[in-house]
Design brief:
Blueprint (H helix, E strand, L loop, with lengths): L5 E5 L3 H11 L4 E6 L13 E2 H9 L3 H4 L4 E2 L2 E5 L5 E6 L6 E3 L2 H14 L3 E4 L3 E4 L4 E4 L4 E3 L2 E4 L6 H5 L3 E17 L8 E7 L2 E7 L4 E9 L12 H7 L4 H4 L7 E10 L3 E2 L2 E3 L2 H4 L8 H18 L3 H31 L6 H11 L3 H7 L12
Parallel strand pairs: 1-2, 1-12, 2-8, 5-14, 12-19
Antiparallel strand pairs: 3-7, 4-7, 5-6, 9-10, 10-11, 13-16, 13-17, 14-15, 15-16, 18-19
């Protein structure tokens, strides 16, 4: 197969860079367009499950991205009384690792440079066609064998291709940030604390920082406030004062979104990442699915010289798992947040029973235990 095929990618986030690497490793020439002045990532942690780690390994960045990260041994959700509702253990073939997002992003940037991928900053894509044309704001129209929209949940390029079916604004949101680590902080256990409709997620991250995520309904004005209203969160989680007091004025609140496209491609144009499957972070699979789908896309393009045919097969084979996780991460958020405070104890009883059912465990962890196409 020819090694001279060319791709133009709009968006230099995690998905855009991951796909650029996957294609460049297959001999493609790749150019990535980023509208910002530089490449930077906001300060939070990121969950890398086994499927994501295997994908990153195949992209040549796994070791660099996770060099500082803590290895997680257990994950537990606890109710307002400290009672465990859900528990999951991890091993050498079923891993969860939590590096800072910036470490992962820097590893992807370095790998892009090694492979000679061209990255154009201050280059905004404003149009895309199924014929392989990418229109840039400065008036240029670029032709490629493959054009890709990796421009996020609100992708204007997805809509230019008429691929949007629905973009849903969900009823919860998240403030994600890093806090200074203390010597007595847990090293290997992720804990999600539930109190009424609020959740506080504590994640060991590196020797220097921990990752914290605060989740609340969109109508919870005090809960979504940034800088974080520490007094309000302390009232919900009085036992977590040692964590809450370390929260500074950084962080950002994002409303949960769910993207449902009509298709992942049209002609020789495709969508990846949040543009294709934006979802709430309850199962921590959004980025992992992005990595495995980008890796798989390069594999299908390697197997079939016709780009449109390869894109159709890619979606047919890979999308069912992504759609499954979208449904289950949404369900998780609804179950966690939709119970009035007076029913908190009933919620605990139900969840203790349900999460012990093997079938439920398989549905929640279906992506994490998936072996991505193209991975070792």
């Amino acid at each position: 197969m020819s090694t001279t095929r060319h791709a133009e990618i709009a968006g230099a986030g995690l998905g855009g860079l991951a796909l650029a690497i996957a294609l460049a490793q297959k001999g493609w020439s790749v150019r990535v367009h980023e509208r910002s002045d530089d490449l930077r990532m906001f300060g939070a942690g990121i969950w890398l499950w086994e499927n994501g780690l295997r994908s990153l390994e195949a992209l040549g960045v796994e070791q660099t991205a996770t060099a500082r990260a803590k290895r997680i041994e257990t994950m537990v959700a606890r109710d307002q009384d400290g009672r465990p509702l859900l528990r999951r253990s991890f091993g050498t073939e079923d891993r969860l690792i939590l590096p800072p997002r910036a470490d992962l992003y820097d590893a992807l940037i370095a790998r892009v440079g090694e492979l000679g991928v061209e990255v154009e900053l201050r280059s905004t894509a404003i149009g895309i066609t199924p014929r392989g044309e990418l229109e840039i704001e400065d008036g240029k129209t670029l032709q490629a064998d493959l054009v890709v929209a990796a421009d996020g949940v609100f992708s204007r390029l997805r809509e230019a291709l008429l691929l949007t079916r629905r973009v849903d604004y969900l009823d919860e949101g998240y403030t994600r940030l890093l806090i200074p680590r203390r010597p007595d902080d847990p090293d290997t256990e992720v804990t999600e604390y539930w109190s009424g409709s609020r959740r506080l997620l504590y994640d060991p991250c590196t020797d220097d920082v921990d990752y914290v995520c605060l989740c609340c309904p969109v109508d919870d004005e005090a809960g979504r406030r940034v800088p974080v209203d520490k007094e309000s969160w302390l009232a919900s989680f009085p036992m977590l004062g040692g964590i809450i007091e370390r929260i500074d004025d950084s962080g950002r609140w994002d409303r949960a979104m769910r993207v449902t496209p009509r298709a992942w491609s049209r002609g020789v144009a495709a969508i990846v990442g949040d543009a294709a499957h934006g979802q709430p972070p309850n199962l921590g699979q959004g980025a992992n699915l992005t990595f495995q789908n980008c890796l798989a896309l390069a594999e299908y393009l390697e197997r079939d010289a016709d780009v449109a045919t390869a894109l159709a097969r890619w979606e047919r084979e890979e999308r069912p798992l992504t759609d499954h996780i979208q449904r289950w991460t949404d369900l998780y958020g609804r179950v966690a947040s939709a119970w009035p405070d007076r029913f908190a104890h009933r919620r605990s009883q139900v969840l203790e029973t349900v999460t012990r059912i093997p079938w439920v465990d398989r549905q929640l962890n279906k992506a994490a235990r998936h072996r991505p196409l193209g991975a070792r």
